[in-house]
Amino acid sequence: MADLLLDIRNLHIEATVQAPGERPHDIVIVDDVSLSLEKGRVLGLIGESGAGKSTIGLATMGYGRGAIRLSGEVWLNGRNILDGGLRELRRLRGREVTYVSQSAAASFNPAKRLMEQIIEAGLEHGVGSRRELARRAVQLFDALGLPDPENFGLRYPHQVSGGQLQRAMTVMALVPEPDMIVFDEPTTALDVTTQIDVLAAIKKAIRETGVAAMYITHDLAVVAQVSDDIMVLRNGRMVERGTTDEIINSPREEYTRALVSVRSIEHDEKGLTDTPVLSTHNISARYGKGAQVLDDVSVDLHPGQTLAIVGESGSGKSTLARVITGLLPPISGEVSFQGRRLSPALSGRSKDDLRQLQMIYQMADVAMNPRQTVGTIIGRPLEFYFGLRGRARRARVLELLDDIEMGPEFIDRYPAELSGGQKQRVCIARALAAKPSVIICDEVTSALDPLVADGILKLLLRLQEREDVAYLFITHDLATVRAIADSIAVMYRGALVRYGPKSEVLSPPFDDYTDLLLASVPEMKIGWLEEVLSRRRMESAGN
Amino acid sequence: MPMVLKLVAQRIALGLLLLLAVSVLIFAGTQILPGDVAQSILGQSATPTALANLRRDLGLDDPAYIRYFRWLWGVMHGDLGTALSNGQDIATQIGERLGNTLFLAFWAAVVAVPLAITLGLVSVRYRNRWPDRLISTVSLASISLPEFFIGYVLIYYFSARHQWFPSLATVYDGMPLLERLRAIALPVAVLTLVVLAHMMRMTRAAIMNVMQSAYIETAELKGLSAFKVIIRHAFPNAISPIVNVVMINLAYLVVGVVVVEVIFVYPGMGQYLVDHVAKRDVPVVQATGLIFAAVYIALNLIADVVAILSNPRLRHPK
Question: Which listed residue, of A92, A122, A197, B20, carries a Cα 20 to 30 Å from B40's Cα?
């Protein structure tokens, strides 16, 4: 094929890792993966964490994080780049292949102006003069919808929002006129409403410049919008490869089918009861002397039900959780539990109040003491609230492990020996151990892969059924909300914009913000992005 | 950028306050020392009447706080008092010696600071390989040896055996610059060896810390050479800790050179201080103490200000 750009043959990547207290051993990150990419085409690499997709992306530039060993062949523009030395690799990095990372906020040097960083690779490789490159950058700023394109490059990274930085990084990748760009989860860290703009910008840039791209993500719905072909990876091996249409609409492999049909949860909304178990009344709050982050928020949580709090980052949803738990006393308003007023500050609450309200966090990793075993972690609330010790405590821990579908052998393991999903399950067991009436779940599935998250949600629903525990479920993910909520509160900039039973909140007529939020959730369907964008254009033309 | 100005003004005000506090400490410290100025001027055989008269003349009968303010007032007007041992004006005596000390410190810094930072950068570039190990070993060895030892070894080799440099760093007024530099070559070498390791290792550590950042990976993926990555992308983000350690070492070059000055018989502040401590010349000790404190505070102030200015978030607020 004449226009073949990239041809990876039998790529095999190993690394030597050393777990604490163990001998160093080799692990295989990528196992015998072959793929090819023609000029001007977009290949989506999809898989869960640990599938080796980022590693493959970086391998196209001959780059590896940490001490990894590459073998096999990576043919780029007609030569095997793994044959050349570091000098050869440097010549292609930033020239033939450029890279857009997940977190543009961390990937820009905080001490330098954006323009200087954006034209740096082009200058280094002699693509053009400073002035030519800067002009190209300004054109791209304009094309990707960045504000004040002429002066945008004069800013420092901290002066620009996350979504803008992600677009600026795309510009940085485009300026040296590469043959291929590796996009490594470029929208994962963004809010859904921002994600859609960045996605549209990336797609436009690819289409207009005719650059080839490798688009890495764990979100099949996102990759369906931008790629021509999709390769599904799992544990470093290829599962299947096909055109986007084939993968989305007629996947061959079991695993791909599971990825496509994720969110299979059926949950019927429960009717409201007479007395809520937990209510907030006109809560307003702020941190220190800062700006107000919560404004007059009143919500009710009914026994055995799930209230989802939905919003973007900065909407105040986690702050609401802090107020309810007593970590942040509000400036006005109050929290009531089973009909009586709770002390605003943690120190004023009784041990039983504390027991009744438990929390599960987003990062299960940091929510557990790495030097305690699972048995100690789950056993601690048993001892603290119920005075269980010795054999009784152990028996109860085993029961709880059984509840979270983990075997008795886990009791003596340390958190580092568990997978992400298992860690979150242990945190659920710890919350459950206190026999609470309410569990506050703060983004508990956002750090997990879709299939694992699905399992956690199912577990939570089943436990709710049995224990009659109510969940205050904080999330930015509307798909999750659809799956498990009974009531929904949509928050925006600290205030409630929409609140009620799920069926009401999710049916029209919508307010503007909820409409935007709902329309921004990527759907597993080709052409969704264009539909949304054209609908938006029509709406703004109509106004 | 009013925010930066405010921060810098705050630092300067704090520095002045600190200096004032130090002056109280120095004054109080010399007050609780045993011995009596009048006694030490007149000697053991003085009559009680003569002692009382002298005390009254010197104002020693006044309460301590009045004497403190009298002293402070003088200091603020450039009057550091009179040396007891030889009756000369302290300010004039110190002026010349402080000049000598600063001259020595300046040249030691001119050699040591760029050398230390360059070696730090080279260490990061070849981290955990032989150049890094060699630099670490040699600089650690030089910091482990006491400075008088290094001083005498250098004197033995470069003056006694080869006569390339003078063993005594004698300088005088009107001495041509080149000759002056030749005279202080050996003390500069000793000082450089003493402060090099600390600055080099902190530079290395500060940059290594930054090398973990995602933007370093971005720079590497642009195809920049390792040195360019370090100098353009890592170094600007490590300036603040590096400047801090450089300033601490510069302060040492001014304040801590006593041993080196004694070895090379260099007419600087250190020698002067040692001489007058031995003679219990309290006004001189007070004056030099205050000057040393001022140097320390000023250099750390500069480090703070540079740290503020090197932070783009403070320089360019949203």
Answer: B20
CB contact under 8 A, B222 and A106: no
Q: Do A109 and B224 touch (CB under 8 A)?
A: no
Do A366 and A454 share a domain, yes or no?
A: yes
Q: What DSSP assignment string belongs to A374-420? A: HHHHHHHHHHHHH---HHHHHHHHHHHHHHTT--GGGGG--GGGS-H
The count of structural domains within chain B is 1
Q: Are residues A284 and A249 in the same domain?
A: no
Q: Could you read off the pLDDT of B21-74 as tens digits, one per residue?
A: 999 998 888 777 766 667 777 777 778 888 888 778 777 777 888 888 888 888
Same-domain check for residues A351 and A316: yes
A331 close to B (CB below 8 A): no
B205 is a domain residue: yes
Q: What is the ipTM of this complex?
A: 0.79
Which tens digit of pLDDT belongs to each residue from A236-255?
Answer: 899 999 999 888 888 898 88
In a domain, B103, yes or no: yes
* A380/A295 same-domain check: yes
CATH number of the domain bearing residue A474: 3.40.50.300
Would you give the DSSP letter of residue A13? E
Q: Within a domain: residue A534? A: no
* Least Cα separation, residue A227 to chain B (angstroms): 23
Which of B153, B157, B154, B116 has the alpha carbon at shortest distance from B138? B116
Distance (Å) of CA A281 to CA A286, A307, A341, A390, A497 = 16, 15, 10, 42, 16
Which residues in chain A have their CB less than 8 angstroms from residue B228's CB? Answer: 124
CATH number reported for the structural domain that contains residue B153 in this entry:
1.10.3720.10
Alpha-carbon distance of A8 to A15, in angstroms, equals 19
Identify whether A517 is part of a domain: no
> Which structural domain, as residue segments, surrounds residue A435?
278-507
Residue B240 structural domain: 95-279
At A98, is the secondary structure helix, strand, or coil? strand
Contact across the interface for B218 and A110, Cβ inside 8 Å: no
Rounded-to-5 percentages of helix, strand, coil across chain A: 40, 25, 35
For residue A480, being part of any structural domain is answered with yes
Across the interface, whether the CB atoms of A92 and B237 are under 8 A apart is answered no
Compute how many other C-beta atoms are within 10 angstroms of the C-beta atom of residue B282.
Answer: 22
- Mutation site for A-interface testing, chosen from B211, B212, B218 by largest number of A Cβ within 10 Å: B218
Interface contacts (A, B; CB < 8 Å) = 77
Q: Is residue B220 part of a domain?
A: yes
For residue range A71-85, list pLDDT tens digits in order: 889 999 888 988 888
Q: Which two tokens stand for residue A401?
A: 């492990």
Same-domain pairing of A60 and A146: yes
Residue B36 lies in a domain: no
Interface test with A, best of B211, B221, B313, B316 (most A CBs within 10 A): B221
Angle at A205 between CA A199 and CA A206, to 5 degrees: 90
Alpha-carbon distance B272 to B91, whole Å? 12
